[in-house]
Amino acid sequence: MSCIDSILTDSVYAARHLLGWQLVYMSPVGIVCGYIVETEAYHSLDPASHTWSGESPRNKSMFQNAGTVYVYFTYGRHYCLNIVTGDIGDGQGVLIRAVEPIGSIEIMRSNRPNVRSDIQLTNGPAKLTQAYGIDGSLDGTNIFEGPIHLLPGRIVPEVVVTRRIGVLQGVDAELRFYDSKSPFVSKR
DNA sequence: TTTAGGATGAACT
DNA sequence: GTTCATCCTAAAA
After folding, report:
1. What does the pLDDT look like over A124-170, one tens digit per residue?
2. Distance in angstroms: CA A6, C1' B6
3. Of all protein residues, which has its CA closest to the C1' atom of C10?
4. Which nucleotide is nearest to A73 (CA to C1')?
5. pLDDT (tens digit, 9 = 90+) per residue, A40-87?
6. What is the pTM of this model?
7. Residue A175 — pLDDT band, cuts 50, 70, 90?
């Protein structure tokens, strides 16, 4: 079992320990990568999770093996990226909410032409997918064979745990994790 | 077949 | 701080 496999056994553990890892995407126009600085954990016993009411065509990727990429469409215009954790059929995963770019700024700027400040390129779940050029066509790929990978990154000296953003149920659960030293976190 | 609403972001004031 | 863009999914009818 590789290092990443042992991290992806549980969504809460994975959300905490994926901070500092590099999210890499081999896009058609070049490699895009950044450090993960903000995550949230979701699982099937959680009313805020897409998997709470069981498997459907939309969320079927979440029920596949750990390392599967779940990309979903929301609010009529946005895509968000998740890494599936646990065993097949569990329906659990980690939402990647923000990353800190590593030398891929030019591609990110061209994918988000209206953004003035570089901070705003990737400091939100739908912002980073747009900056990377990730959309629904990547749903169901996985980090071992597909164009999206995870690589070991840097040490995160201080992790902050809070309630999740934008959820209507399970609001009290503290399942959001972020790197307090990074300026690319969506909201403090 | 129809309809309500959503793990959000940007552009306003 | 507030509003709206805009479209897919799931559940109702």
Report:
1. 999 999 999 999 999 999 999 999 999 999 999 999 999 999 998 88
2. 32
3. A56
4. C8
5. 999 999 999 999 989 998 999 999 999 999 999 999 899 999 999 999
6. 0.95
7. very high
User: Which nucleotide lies closest to A78 by the C1' atom and the CA atom?
Assistant: B8
Residue with tokens 């169901």: A140
Please report, for residues A89, A164, A167, the alpha-carbon distance to residue A171 in angstroms, rounded to integers and kept in the order given. 25, 7, 6
Nucleotide nearest to A60 (CA to C1'): C9
Q: Could you say which nucleotides of strand C lie within 7 A of any protein CB atom?
A: 5-11
- ∠ CA A32-A35-A38 to the nearest 5 degrees? 120
Query: Closest residue to B5 by CA to C1' distance?
Result: A75
